[in-house]
Give the backbone structure.
Amino acid sequence: MPHPAGRLAMAAAAVAATVLAAASPALARPHVKEWPVKAEFTVLNDITAGFDDALYATDGSLGRLFRITQTGRISSVEIGESLRGVTAGPDGALWVTDGSLDRITRVGRDGSLTHHELPEQGSFPTGIVTGPDGGLWFTELRGDRIGRLATTGEIDEYDIPTPGAFAADITVGPDRALWFTEQSTDKVGRVSTSGTVTEYALPEGSLPGPIAAAGDSLYVALRNTNAIIELSTAGEILATRPLPTELADPHSMAVSPGGGRLWIAQENARSIARMTTDGVFGRDLELRSGPDDLAFDHDGDLWYIAADDARIGRIELR
């Protein structure tokens, strides 16, 4: 039997843990639910919340757009070949990039499909986001351009100054410009809604991946150096935050609805990291699958996709 002093120490530790958990709800372990996508050869790429309380995920192998309800019911529609990014547009529709077919498809609430072909073949549209001007802004992974698609179908394109940029992720910055990462050139780019493109250098060999905006700053995950950097809207590096988990390979980031916390998908570590905007990391949330992309739903729960295991998961944070 434990010594009385040992029992007292264990009791004190238990009380302290209880108090800590009550004082720090962010450290409590949320409930995780996963659903497999039962479609052979599925490769999930991107996920976003729709306007109907469902989540939508793109497939890069089968060309399908998957719809998953809050209860885990999954359905799909075929709309292309290699679907990449998806975003909810200002018109109540979903907009999806198709890299192989060099087009962007509008998926209406009624299920209607409208395809918009890009001017140049081989552009490979990838990331897409609704801009502050009501346009759909997207990256061209191989075209070295940033594009803008109006909901009425007009397309404008803006050249990235550095060739071979391999631009993928894109987000709206706190300055109402569009910010994107250049994976092959170790740069971050900014394009104003009028089309002026500016580039900023990042550490050499860092392999910038996902980019997100919170507060007055931009946050970029560096896949090679396993860190998150904070940038000002002037392109100045304000801080570098090494990820506590080694070789995490951050694939995606999502900002909590309140804006004070970043959630980081660590594909190689099969976990999600939590970091406040001032650089304090919480305990990693371990998963059975390696997360590739993240999105919050309208209720504040966090969803993820795992490409290798073809799974869609929900993390209940309420």
The first helix runs from residue 4 to 23. The mean pLDDT is 91. The chain has one domain: 33-316. The domain at 33-316 is CATH 2.130.10.10 (Methylamine Dehydrogenase; Chain H).
